Automatic annotation (TrEMBL):
Residues of the Carbohydrate kinase FGGY N-terminal domain: 3-247
Similarity-based family: Belongs to the FGGY kinase family.
Coiled coil: none
Full protein name: Gluconokinase
Organism: Limosilactobacillus reuteri
InterPro entries: ATPase_NBD, Carb_kinase_FGGY, Carb_kinase_FGGY_CS, FGGY_C, FGGY_Carb_Kinase, FGGY_N
Keyword list, A-Z: Kinase, Transferase
Length: 510
């Protein structure tokens, strides 16, 4: 038997999935690490911890494989995008990894967004102007950490840093490059205007390569840590959102993929770049001839986690001897659609699509004496789904109505979530029984890299069993009345977000 290892480098953990040559899952492994946050909007990782986590999960997966009688065909990567790490001339870190979740560049992003240059950059790169993008992060670093920038020989991301540690080569796949706000989506090369804004020379950035590009020749140190043959092919792959589309077979313009994990995303793959004139959505390259259009949302399962921690009765959890999430889902099922006239805007962590406002904050609207914690729990879940629906509508505006929606992520394990999403979107929702779509997408790119497949159509045969949920018309009717109000209140509150964000920041510094 031969093997693949798919690796997904995430925000708080790295996962590895061991597959056989037919893409059957054999085992899974995970290693966690810290995400460092503070009130300023900082969200950073320790690069050494991530390198060690990647080495460990690959080692653990390889130990489960019989490499005496079989071969490890390739290790292929999915990773979070829009990270920045400052490196000296010897590629040693001068900073921690500044992640996609870091919002400290919000003032720089707002200034650029409201300038003619910002509109030009968006039109050429397909990357919305927001503090998540490496372009605005580097512009912010120039303003706030000029001394450290002066020492910086290279600007990398977590994947280019990992591959340098393993192979001493400084390269990045086209999908990660496309998410930086500095790559021209039409030429797939670094954009001169963006580089000028960032005050960065192209020699300071990694070489852009296709996602199916292989690296071979592990350093002795990396080979020893992983315990795999030094000539094992490592495939660059793509960013996690794009690979989630591939991993569920959503590779045509008529299939929308929705992922709800800690955060969330709504994406569709096209065969040509599509730029949103309203700047609501991104347009990123995935692989040669493939682009992904969509919107990332900051607020997904983490908001539900917050709600469960603060709204579920601890004594009830103890009395019923079940975990709080199971109890919460049971309680929510007992509340009718619309939560008795209560809306929740889930912007606890600012918001990317469709607002692109790092100052956005959450709120309940319509709260009255009649409402209970059960209503509030349901409205939180509905708010997450309604927020997804606003991005879903933007995608439909740009590429047309989908034939189907495929949804994955931790939320998909709960029946109440699955049905609610179908009802709010008023669209059938398919749920693959295999949840690690990013790793499956990564090894599919490895298969293409090795010449085992010609295109990604094969993924549809690898996804496995799917559960389908049809909209319940009674609930659809309720949500069709509430969605316009959800958007109206969002619009009314938007001008006040910056004020409340400043007041909150002041309150944490006194």
């Amino acid at each position: 038997m031969n093997y693949f290892i798919g690796v997904d480098v995430g925000t708080t953990s790295t996962k590895a999935v061991l597959y056989d040559q037919n893409a059957t899952v054999l085992d899974q492994f995970s290693q966690g690490y810290s995400l460092y946050r503070d009130a300023s909007g900082m969200a950073e990782q320790n690069p050494t911890a991530i390198v060690e986590a990647v080495e460990k999960v690959i080692h653990d997966a390889a130990q489960k494989a019989d490499l005496t009688n079989g071969k490890l065909l390739a290790v292929s990567f999915s990773s979070a995008n829009q990270s920045v790490i400052m490196l000296d001339k010897n590629f040693n870190p001068l900073s921690r990894v500044i992640t996609w979740a870091d919002t400290r560049a919000h003032d720089v992003a707002n200034e650029l967004k409201n300038s003619p240059a910002g509109q030009q950059i968006y039109a050429k790169t397909g990357t919305p102007i927001h503090p998540m993008s490496p372009l605005t992060k580097i512009m912010w670093l120039n303003k706030t950490q000029a001394d450290k920038v002066a020492q910086t020989a290279y600007f990398g991301d977590i994947k280019s840093y990992l591959f340098y540690q393993f192979f001493n080569t400084f390269k990045v796949d086209v999908s990660i490059a496309s998410c930086t706000g500095m790559m021209n989506v039409n030429t797939c090369d670094w954009d001169d205007q963006a580089l000028e804004l960032a005050n960065v020379d192209r020699s300071q950035l990694p070489e852009i390569v296709n996602g199916i590009t292989q690296a071979i020749g592990l350093t002795a140190a990396a080979q020893a840590k992983m315990g795999i043959p030094a000539d094992t092919s490592f495939v660059y792959g793509a960013f996690d959102g794009a690979l989630s589309n591939l991993g569920v077979g959503a590779i045509k313009q008529n299939t929308v993929a929705i992922t709800i994990g800690t955060s969330a995303g709504v994406r569709v793959v096209t065969d040509h770049p599509v730029i949103d004139p309203q700047q609501r959505l991104f347009c990123y390259a995935v692989d040669k001839g493939l682009w992904v259009i969509g919107g990332p949302l900051n607020n997904g399962g983490d908001v539900y986690q917050w709600a469960v921690e603060h709204l579920v009765d601890a004594s009830a959890v103890k009395n019923e001897n079940i975990d709080p999430y199971t109890l919460a889902n049971r309680v929510i099922e007992g509340v009718p659609a619309g939560a008795h006239g209560l809306l929740f805007h889930p912007f606890l962590g600012g918001e990317r699509a469709p607002l692109w406002d790092a100052n956005a904050r959450g709120s309940f609207f319509g709260l009255s004496h009649i409402h209970t914690r059960a209503d509030m729990l349901r409205s939180v879940m509905e708010g997450i789904c309604m927020n997804i629906a606003t991005v879903f509508q933007a995608v439909r505006d740009l590429v047309g109505n989908p034939a189907s929606v495929t949804a994955t992520g931790g939320f998909a394990r709960a029946e109440v979530w699955r049905q609610m999403l179908a009802d709010v979107l008023n669209c059938p929702v398919n749920i693959p029984n295999s949840f690690e779509s990013g790793c499956l997408g990564a090894i599919t790119m490895a298969m293409k890299s090795l010449g085992m497949i010609e295109n990604y159509e094969i993924i549809k045969t690898l996804v496995g069993d799917i559960s389908s949920y049809q909209p319940n018309q009674d609930a659809v009717n309720v949500y069709q009345n509430y969605l316009p109000l959800f958007k109206q209140v969002e619009g009314l509150l938007t001008p006040a977000y910056s004020t409340i964000a400043k007041l909150q920041q002041q309150s944490t510094t006194h």
